[in-house]
Amino acid sequence: MAKDAIQERFFTALISGQRDTARQIVDELLQADCPAPSILGKLFWPTLDQVQKLYRHDQMSMLSFNFATRLMRNLVDQMQLRLERRESRGKSVLVVCGPEESEELGTQMVADLLEADGYDVFFAGGGIANDEIVSYIGQLNINTLLVFGAVPSTVPFTRLLIDQLHEIGAAPKLQVVVGGGVFNRADGLAEEIGADLWAQSPEDVVQVMNDNPDRRMTEDQRTVGRKRRTRRETAAA
After folding, report:
1. Strand, helix or coil for residue 124
2. Using one digit for the tens of pLDDT, what is the confidence trace for 33-56?
3. Handedness of CA 190, 119, 26, 71 (dihedral sign)
């Protein structure tokens, strides 16, 4: 069956609350030997993205939105158990996101795929204060901070978080990766806030991190905190 047809069936089942039908579609793919990462990346993620866009533009009722996100949460939890775990990479990732449940759901897919790919994943979700994140990164010497699925209201806090991490030097070798959410809708935003890497989807995050393990923004490339540093330097002069 064509990919678009499967996604349309799945989307319709989700927004109408047809739990058995949605599970049946997933079972059909598993029986056809479709690997779990592909189901997460090629079916769950684009369907969730479609649901989010329609709801954000007032083209979907809250009832349908809740049907879809609650059911998909259940399916994502089940799919995580089918992911084959690779050998440990010896690298840790702290994963945070925006406060909305649908954003956290997409971020959970990222966390599951990264864990299956050998990363040590700490999935905190949304609503965590910057000070707590900074403290945790320093205590555990986290290798990568991933901010996925941020909403517009949380971007200033993400900017301040990156600024704070670089100012205090809590983890000088930390890599900051962003993606999903508002970062997919605003070109250049990831670079503007000083992120080292940007990825559009859960699968992209894994690929980008694997391909660019040592990439870091240089001090001159970072715009985060630049105005604040300039003001301090001027005052000192």
Report:
1. strand
2. 999 999 999 999 999 999 999 999
3. negative
Query: In sequence order, what DSSP letters do the residues of 10-31 get, joined into one string?
Result: HHHHHHTT-HHHHHHHHHHHHH
**Amino acid making up residue 50:** Q
CA distances, 69 to each of 1, 13, 125, 183 (Å): 25, 12, 15, 21
DSSP state of 169: T
Q: How many Cβ atoms sit within 10 Å of the Cβ of residue 83? A: 17
Q: Please tell me whether residue 41 adopts helix, strand or coil conformation.
A: helix
Alpha helices in 61-195 (DSSP H): 62-80, 101-116, 130-140, 155-168, 189-192
- Contact, 225 vs 233, CB < 8 A? no
Q: How far is CA 73 from the centre of its chain?
A: 15
Which residue ranges form the domains of the chain, and what is each CATH number? 3-80 (1.10.1240.10), 92-211 (3.40.50.280)
Picking from 147, 145, 150, the residue whose alpha carbon sits closest to that of residue 170 is 145
Q: What pLDDT is recorded for position 222?
A: 54
Determine the residue type at 196.
D
Q: What is the pTM of this model?
A: 0.88
pLDDT at residue 218 above 50? yes
Mean pLDDT of all residues in 207-236: 63
| Contacts of residue 157, Cβ cutoff 8 Å, sequence gap at least 6 | 130
Q: What pLDDT, in 10s, does the model give residues 72-87?
A: 999 999 999 999 999 9
Give pLDDT tens digits for 111-151: 999 999 999 999 999 999 999 999 999 888 899 999 998 88
